[in-house]
Specification:
With 345 residues, this protein is an alpha/beta fold. Helices cover 32% and strands 19% of the residues. Bound molecules: adenosine-5'-triphosphate (ATP). Belongs to the ABC transporter superfamily.
């Protein structure tokens, strides 16, 4: 995992106008060696996950269903207790907090979550104003100040403050998603975690919401984690991307570099399967989808990897760290074998 500043956009990590929320170059979110076990009997769902997010940075998390994306988000929120490793938000070790200390940390509103399904996550009996202001009410913010901040949050997400009097059922899908973002940003969180924030929306609303997240990090210096199946959406806004497979980060780095030149066969498979991400894919989809001779026990991807060798099935891969992180036995060699053939002149 890189410790460098975000790649790609060259923006001021504090968003130019926003406050320096973490007092310098320390990351807003630092996840180290995270392991989470769930179920009974407990099975590993996340293993040795490292992730860093800085102020004003957007980090995408991709991976197929069941890879552990939501579990990672819930653990960062302090909703799940790790079996190993640590989660630090703005210098506070969230993974070590319990009971009253954890509740107090949540009340600070430093980390806020935007849910996947705004209709289900917004209380139908409450007005938009009450929903957006709920966190402030719990924190004891007086009514007049609360109303002012709710209005401001609605304006920031591009909604008419008059909508504060309506209920969720009286809004469109795009408006509801904006309300859920307004509810999250009203406490001016240092870190915003969005679980599939645009998957339920049509293309035009999707673009609006993505632009909005981009604006928020610029204006408020918010660090944003975006979980998404949609590589194309992420490619438009994220600075970095982490690729999860079966609970492990197999690749991480600046999103343009990772999508242009994937160094893990699973990343290459995702990119080659999503034609909107890059005009000319570097790798041949059929080659990436070829059967594997690898087994299980070493690399988590060995059983699906057409380039797997005996070592992949037997031994966990070495992790190359730096601006790009890759966990693969054959980082330097598989890519050539999978390259799209160049047509003869
Ligand atoms: N409470 C639980 N008990 C046991 N296993 C669980 C529990 N919650 C999640 N899992 C398992 O953990 C794995 C990761 O689940 P998670 O919801 O984090 O995946 P995800 O990447 O967010 O998937 P999706 O894209 O479908 O939302 C899955 O295999 C899931 O079945």
């Amino acid at each position: 995992m890189s410790t460098g500043v975000k790649g790609g956009t060259g923006r001021d990590p504090n968003g130019g106008v926003g406050p320096d929320l973490n007092g310098g170059d320390a990351p807003l979110l630092r996840v180290r060696g995270l392991g989470v076990r769930l179920g009974s009997p407990a099975v590993p769902v996340l293993e040795e996950v490292d992730l860093t997010v800085r102020a004003g940075e957007i980090v995408g998390i991709v991976g197929e269903t069941g890879s552990g994306k939501t579990t990672l988000a819930r653990t960062v929120m302090g909703l799940l207790t790790p079996a190993a490793g640590s989660v630090e938000v703005d210098g506070v070790a969230v993974s070590g907090l319990r009971g009253a200390a954890l509740r107090a940390h949540r009340r600070t509103g430093k980390v806020r979550f935007v849910f996947q399904d705004p209709l289900r996550s917004l209380d139908p009996d409450h007005t938009v104003g009450a929903i957006v202001g709920e966190g402030l009410a719990i924190a004891g913010v007086p009514a007049a100040e609360r109303a002012r901040r709710v209005r401001h949050a609605l304006e920031l997400v591009g909604l008419d403050p008059a909508l504060a009097a309506r209920r969720p059922a009286q809004l469109s899908g795009g408006q509801r998603q904006r309300v859920s973002i307004a509810r999250a940003i009203v406490s001016e969180p240092a870190l915003l975690i969005c679980d599939e924030p645009v998957s339920a929306l049509d293309a035009s609303n999707r673009n609006h919401i993505l632009r909005l997240l981009d604006e928020l990090r610029e204006r408020l210096g918010t660090g944003v984690v975006v979980i998404s199946h949609d590589l194309g959406s992420l490619a438009g806004i994220a600075d970095r991307v982490a690729v999860l497979y079966r609970g492990r980060i197999v690749e991480e780095g600046p999103i343009s570099e990772v999508f242009d030149d994937p160094r893990h066969p699973y990343t290459a498979l995702l990119v080659a399967s999503a034609p909107r991400v890059r005009g000319t894919p570097r790798h041949d989809l059929a080659r990436l989808r070829a059967p594997s001779t690898g087994g299980t026990g070493g690399c988590v991807f060995a059983h699906r990897c057409p380039f797997a060798t005996g070592a992949c099935a037997a031994v966990p891969p070495p992790v190359t760290r730096g601006e790009r992180t890759v966990a693969c036995h054959h980082t330097g060699t598989w890519s050539e074998a999978a390259r799209v053939p160049v047509p003869a002149e």
